[in-house]
Amino acid sequence: MERFRKIQMPRADARLNAHPVAGVPGIDSRQDVAAALLGTYRRAGYLHANVNPLRPAEAWHPGASPLDFEHRLLPGLAQYLEDLPRLEELLRRSYCGALALNVAHVRNHEQLAWLYERMEGRPSGVSYGEGKRLAIYEALFAAESFEREIADRYPGHKRFGLEGCEAYIVFLQSVMEAAAAANVREVVMGMPHRGRVNVLYNVLRLGFRRICSLYSDDPDPSLATWDIKEHLGLGGRLSTAAGEIGFFLAHNPSHLESVTPVITGMTRAWQERERANARGSVMPIIVHGDASFSGQGIVTETFNLARTRGYDVGGTVHVVLNNQIGSTVSNLLDARSTLNCADIARAYDVPILHVNADVPEAVVFAAETAVEFRQRFRSDILVDILGYRRRGHYGIDDPTLTQPAMQRAIRGKATTARLYRDSMLQSATIGEELVADVERSVLARMSSPESDDRPLSTVTPLQVPVARSEVYANSTTAVPFQQLKQLTASMASVPAGFAPHANIVALVDGWRACASEPTNQVDWRLAENLAYATLLSASFNVRLTGLDIGRGSFFHRQCIWYDQQAADDGESLHVPLRHLGREQGAFSVFDTPLSEEAVLGFEYGYSVMSARSLVVWEAQFGDFVNNAQVIIDQFISCGEVKWGYKSDLVMLLPHGYEGGGPDHSSAYLGRFLSLCAQQNMVVAVPSTSAQLFHLLRRQLIGRIDKPLVVFTPKPQLYGKGLSHSPWSDFTDSGFCPVIETGPLGAGSAVERILLCSGKVAYDLTEGLEKRQDARSRIVRIEQLYPFPADALREVLARHPSLSEVVWVQEEARNHGAWPVVRDWLEAALPPGMRLRCVSRPDSAPSAGCRRAAHLAELQEIVRNALDAPGA
Q: Which of 593 and 14 is assigned the larger pLDDT?
């Protein structure tokens, strides 16, 4: 108890100590009474706090039991409580007022001690001076006036207004002030629809004229106009009492919580650029809706990432903008299974502050506490701002259809601004004229165009301006053999005293042997590691993440070695790619939790904000990428077109049918291609080790600035010698979007071209060799998007006797590339050329699961491709 010095515990009294309390085990003295009171209030006071503006304190948690001391202790402790009135009054004020502390789940005693002292040390009565109180009222009045003005001007427009939680503006302004005072230089922020336009105006100071343009058919060209106004992001700088602070509000799709890991990814990349005191100088703020916070699993995934090595950002200030009904759900039994929407944070030891949105000074204190906690402990904290929604979900709908009782209570309430105005006027120092001056100033700002003149940044300020590159420009990605040989030797070096696994010994022996002669063949494992090594040696950074990324799902990477004699599995590691030379770039490799959506969202955000970095995420099996489909649909495939975000994120998706069944075969090639348009990303299916090498290098050296989706091999192709490339393919050429292969000397006799991508090319090659078919050639389309039509036309033009083109895929007809590439193929063919598709038939599951059936189907595909139609 001595840790908590803000509460002066009563001294033990010998007379009281001599008389234990009957029927109350463990309570033997006044000191014990005080300890019981203190623990009970700290643990359960929030359940009885006055934090709900629509319900009295005792009813805001339906079904909550009364405080322990009232239920169990009071009957036997009345005589003792007479001696402790000051303690009880202090505890009630500290833990049962408009700000409540929910930390019974937190196991960090240092954090608890600090939070208890913070709560118990607040002075009673008015805690802020005249100037601060007027500033709070100005923010409230401005928030309310903005919503009223927009509603009056644009009565038919959807609006996700802030009426009922105007104190949220006070909160964000206070966070910016507190962050600047705590030496935060940049704030990275994400938030959903509710109140977003109000925040743009009243917190981030976007001019009112520009705001109004968003409601017109002619929005201000300085703002992103492809997406709706409630998704708009903004960057810039704000002036505070402690100096300027930078901010970046990220754009956000309608999948509300999907931005959560994106913000932390952006923050991590920004912090790594800052270097010195990085975690403290860049702070993320993520705002959630009450229903989406508890309802969408990506929030939980992101909390789970927060303290892991690859995803730590030094703590996030999480805020729930709680209108108590989410979208339209009026019964909490339909909304969630927890008592609070904030309760999921309890699983991760995150402190929770519940605060009444009708008590703005408590909101300010919560904001300041959250920032100070984050800066002190570099840990997450959550503020649950309980308000309400005065209007319907989107402003013009009738909320009484689903919340009649709640709306009756709201109609009888004064607004937060009015309540605070009345409380200020009761003060002897604040009069009507001071308040009127504030109101006149707020209204004048909405009618003045001057605030519209400041420069704005609607995309990330960290992007490096570069000339727009063609998506498959001819970048020089070849590397001299001597350099590759030297890098191979560095990677194959085993540290003294390190006991590698026998497989690693065989690996490095093979690498040394391969690099001994320029005529040798290079397998996929060495090719991929060399791609990273060459970039690192050129001072680029490389970041690899994913399930089993260090070794690779198929033991195909092995970029982390574990000492077999170490006492602990994580005690002694060797990462060869960190030992290439003094001037090399940073190599990061992180095995991730069993999560795809949040991890991929984080990596996307990181890639948007990173510079000179190759950011690579690998799915354990390509099929597992479907767990992150929202991130792909809403960010990766369209972030540049919608918002101007440039990302060069690389996604490695192991793909290939081997009879492994659904969920272990298909990375949904057709689905990715269906998202391709406007040169938004690159989709490639490399068929040789050198092709993968050049693809990865091109991503940075060619400044592609597009997401790269690579359908990578699985064991059957990794071990196929025909797919291993000679050193000359690394030293003398680059990535080839179209590769022609087949029997030598076919020349003008070629009558059939077999077009394909990936592993099936080798099955077709074996079929041609068995038949000794000189009339057919295989053309591999290594890059499916942007589709290399010109390169394909050049290949087809070499064969004047050509009469048929066949698209061959191992996937089912509906799961492979055919539904999308058919139009592109037909546009590239000579006039009158016949085109047909050979594949597995349409299938609901993505793949079969019986090895024998798989092989039979594959033989049928090869036979149908090589036979004439109808044969």
A: 593
